[in-house]
């Protein structure tokens, strides 16, 4: 007869399955929730001047005040995104998404009743920034949790739909301003932001929809299963009892390397101080060396910051070249067309993007950004510059859409939220530093070209450093193998 303990071990080994993300099913509704979230929080960003022009003129805000508002908005996004991971230790993802949606709605609806610059900074700067920072992080996180093989396809589809909505937004705002005025337009946009609560309801925890897939049982897995039975029998969680002869039968030796092959032996680390425990409860300090100081973090942060500064300054550059309003509008339209077309392309080639390498594609997009901006400065032909603007839109898509996928490729799934928080914080800090510096270069030299060359140098730096880092990491991995 088989003993009770062995029978328990056999029953345990018969469960030859593991839980994996659904890669579909409810995940498609989660993708819709991400589209709603991204569209309601970011689609109207390009309409800032149109929406708030009447208020800015009524309270006589100067350019410095508007720049200050953008800085406050960026820092609110940065700190909110950074502390999202810590907030998830206090409340669930859906509760945090509900709170952030409420904050963002207060910000958008608050702009309807604002009467002073201080209220403008609080509603359009602090509240909207906090809501956007948390919702963007959570939306990327939950899509990352629901999809593995189809992650690139779904994220590309989400970004494509968001891009379409962003192109429709200026048309909607123009129509609304003509029919309802600035206050009515802000009220409508505030009502649209309330759809974030629908997105929150669709954000069900991934553990509710996990799939069971067959699990291949190996010698190591069998030993671990038997070991768990012994632990349950002894009712203790300390070092399990295992005869060394059982391992010797497999390896012929009982060295530390052999034990580590079959079991995850925890290291007895030093006792942590109270301050360190508090810091680690708020932020994931392990990411500082492995992610924050790598090109996977610095690259997207620097490029996104430079991209945002450039698109704000380039219309003024075109006007200084005596371009007409129609030509400037055409340039911005082609920029959006290049962005949208690339999003559609990414959706079509999503199956091959991981094979090509997400980081390699990102660096290629950064290279296009540097070359297209340089070519624009070296050309005086309107047609050629419009072509370069289309290429700039292609580069913008690579920089914006692939950012979450770069983070996914660089860190473990459970660290994604913390890594996105670090990236958002870094982007906010860089925007506060690079933005004024580039503006100062423009004012001192009285030349937009000088400022643009400074931004191009950031793209070039990433194009040089990132491939070097990838080569070094590839060689280290080969040595380990």
UniProtKB/TrEMBL annotation:
Entry's Gene Ontology molecular function annotations: monocarboxylic acid transmembrane transporter activity
Residue stretches in coiled coil: none
Localization in the cell: Membrane
SUPFAM superfamilies: MFS general substrate transporter (SSF103473)
InterPro entries: MFS, MFS_dom, MFS_trans_sf, Proton-linked_MCT
Transmembrane segments: 25-52, 64-84, 96-114, 120-140, 152-173, 185-203, 291-313, 328-349, 361-379, 385-407, 419-439, 451-472
Principal location: membrane
Keywords assigned by UniProt, alphabetized: Membrane, Transmembrane, Transmembrane helix
Keyword hit for Membrane: yes
Domain Major facilitator superfamily (MFS) profile: 26-475
Keyword Zinc-finger: no
GO CC entries: membrane
Membrane topology: Multi-pass membrane protein
PANTHER family the UniProt entry points to: MONOCARBOXYLATE TRANSPORTER (PTHR11360), MONOCARBOXYLATE TRANSPORTER 7-LIKE PROTEIN (PTHR11360:SF309)
Name listed for the protein in its UniProt record: Major facilitator superfamily (MFS) profile domain-containing protein
Source species: Spodoptera exigua
Lineage of source species: Eukaryota, Metazoa, Ecdysozoa, Arthropoda, Hexapoda
């Amino acid at each position: 007869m088989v003993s009770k303990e062995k029978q328990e071990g056999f029953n345990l080994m018969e469960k030859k399955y593991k839980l994996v993300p659904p890669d579909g099913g409810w995940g498609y509704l989660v993708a819709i929730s991400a589209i709603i979230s991204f569209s309601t929080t970011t689609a109207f960003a390009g309409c800032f001047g149109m929406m708030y022009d009447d208020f800015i003129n009524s309270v006589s805000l100067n350019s410095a005040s508007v720049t200050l508002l953008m800085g406050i908005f960026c820092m609110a996004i940065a700190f909110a995104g950074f502390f999202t991971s810590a907030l998830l230790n206090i409340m669930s993802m859906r509760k945090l998404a509900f709170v952030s949606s409420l904050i963002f709605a207060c910000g958008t609806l608050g702009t309807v009743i604002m009467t002073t610059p201080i209220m403008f900074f609080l509603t359009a700067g602090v509240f909207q920034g906090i809501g956007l920072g948390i919702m963007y992080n959570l939306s990327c996180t939950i899509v990352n949790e629901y999809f593995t093989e189809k992650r690139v396809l779904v994220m590309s589809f989400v970004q494509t739909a968001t891009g379409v909505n962003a192109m429709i937004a200026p048309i909607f705002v123009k129509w609304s301003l003509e029919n309802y005025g600035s206050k009515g337009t802000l009220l409508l946009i505030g009502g649209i932001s309330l759809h974030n609560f629908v997105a929150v309801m669709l954000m069900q925890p991934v553990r509710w929809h996990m799939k069971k897939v067959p699990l291949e049982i190996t010698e190591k897995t069998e030993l671990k299963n038997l070991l768990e039975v012994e632990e349950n029998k002894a009712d203790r969680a300390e070092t399990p009892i295992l005869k060394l002869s059982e391992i010797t039968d497999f390896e012929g030796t009982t060295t530390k390397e052999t034990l580590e092959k079959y079991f995850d032996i925890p290291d007895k680390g030093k006792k942590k101080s109270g301050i360190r425990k508090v810091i680690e409860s708020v932020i994931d300090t392990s990411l500082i060396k492995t992610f924050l100081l790598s090109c996977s973090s610095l690259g997207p942060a620097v490029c996104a910051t430079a991209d945002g500064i450039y698109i704000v300054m380039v219309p003024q550059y075109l006007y200084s070249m005596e371009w007409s309003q129609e030509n400037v509008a055409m340039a911005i339209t082609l920029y959006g067309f290049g962005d949208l077309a690339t999003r559609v392309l990414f959706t079509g080639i999503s199956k091959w993007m991981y094979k090509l390498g997400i980081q390699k594609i990102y660096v290629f997009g950064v290279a296009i950004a540097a070359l297209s901006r340089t070519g624009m400065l070296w050309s005086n032909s309107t047609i050629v510059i419009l072509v370069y603007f289309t290429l700039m839109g292609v580069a913008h898509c690579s920089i914006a859409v692939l950012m979450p996928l770069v983070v996914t490729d660089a860190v473990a799934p459970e660290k994604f939220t913390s890594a996105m928080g670090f990236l958002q914080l870094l982007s906010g800090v860089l925007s506060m530093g690079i933005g004024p510096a580039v503006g100062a270069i423009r004012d001192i030299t009285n030349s937009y070209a000088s400022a643009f060359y400074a931004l191009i140098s950031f793209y070039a730096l990433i194009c040089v450093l990132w491939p070097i880092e990838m080569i070094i990491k590839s060689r280290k991995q080969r040595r380990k193998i």
